[in-house]
Amino acid sequence: MTSLHLLLWIAGSVVLQLAIYLGIGFWRHWQTFDALRLAAIDGGLGIHVNTDGTEAPPNTVAWLGMRSFSVTHKVIENEVNDICSFHLAPVDGQDLPPFFPGQYLTFKLEVPIADGSTESVTRCYSLSDAPQTNSYRVSIKRAPAPPNSTHPAGRSSNYFHDQVQVGSLLQVRAPAGHFHIDCSLEPVVLIAGGIGITPLLSMVKWSLGEQTEREVWLFYGVRNRLELMALADLQTLAAAHANFHLQVCFSDPLTDDVLGKDFQHHGRINVGLLRRLLPLKPYHFYICGPKSMLESLVPALEDWGVRDAHIHFEAFGPASVVRKNAAAQVATISNAPTSAQALTITFATSGKQLPWRPGNGNLLDFAEAHGIAVNSGCRAGGCGSCQTTIAQGEVHYQQAPDFDPEPGTCLMCVATPQTHLTLAL
After folding, report:
1. How far is it, in rounded angstroms, from Cα 123 to Cα 162?
2. Model-level pTM?
3. What phi and psi, each to the nearest 5 degrees, are found at residue 95?
């Protein structure tokens, strides 16, 4: 055998080994994809992968408008009795459509007022359990009146706690919301502050039930043991699933709170903690909590090098978190106003004409900042409470709202002006 033949044999052997390696890798990837597809279907989500790379919604058609639900169980969830779960079953007895874990329900409530009548109030609350075919669950924290403030206690949360009982009927819109877990098998980090745990509970339970190999971390931050919800359930899940890592953080522990038993870390959740504990992997981060948590964590994750597409967040209560690449994103949106454009917003009923520039926020925040009262609920484009007639001009949505506004109107909480604008307020 000549040297040339020997060299050809060696080259051929290397090519064959490379082909075998790539073939095995492709086969393993296909097995993972097929297992995910079957798990999603078996779990009732009806997920399929689109050729354009986007995630398709559940294929079961949800109902339109409001649907009547009965409260079947009412369960106190913490030691101070300010978090309560409400289990809901449809009055018509028909199966419920699946939802993406992390989504919310919208309620239209008839809340009693001082003169003995009622007032319609629309509010959104996160689903706090994995999808079921016959019931939903929401978990609601009572919102007291702020100390040293003239603001009243939360109307809807106190209505639920004080007035809604087993057997009560509620009017409910179908699950909605853009904040929900993806259906890949990429590792995921869930970060909850206080009652922000509710949508993440849904994510945890669905993932551990349907994605048994997916790595899931949950960082749950509260002040102390009295504010915890579902800790026993979470500890049981952590003991049963080696891929689920539970990390509880107390910022102000009680004297009898035990480190290592009741909680794992003293202090607030921050990127320093995440960097110490998380292996170097392409995690998706899902964050739900108060504005202060989002304002600290989102920029810190960006500074750490986490891709923008891997950071997902939702606030309970009004919040606006500006990402570092927000200016670049706005510049790429067709017809979005640029920073050089000054637009005039006219509020017809109030008789005010005000200049607006990007950076002034959405129309709801802008109106309230100038003393114009606007009815609002979710402040996230889901409930339709702030729907307002447009007398003249056009608005822009950076992301399509979940609630479909009527023609000639806009949802002020998620809209910005695209042209000079006149609103019937």
Report:
1. 16
2. 0.74
3. -60, 150
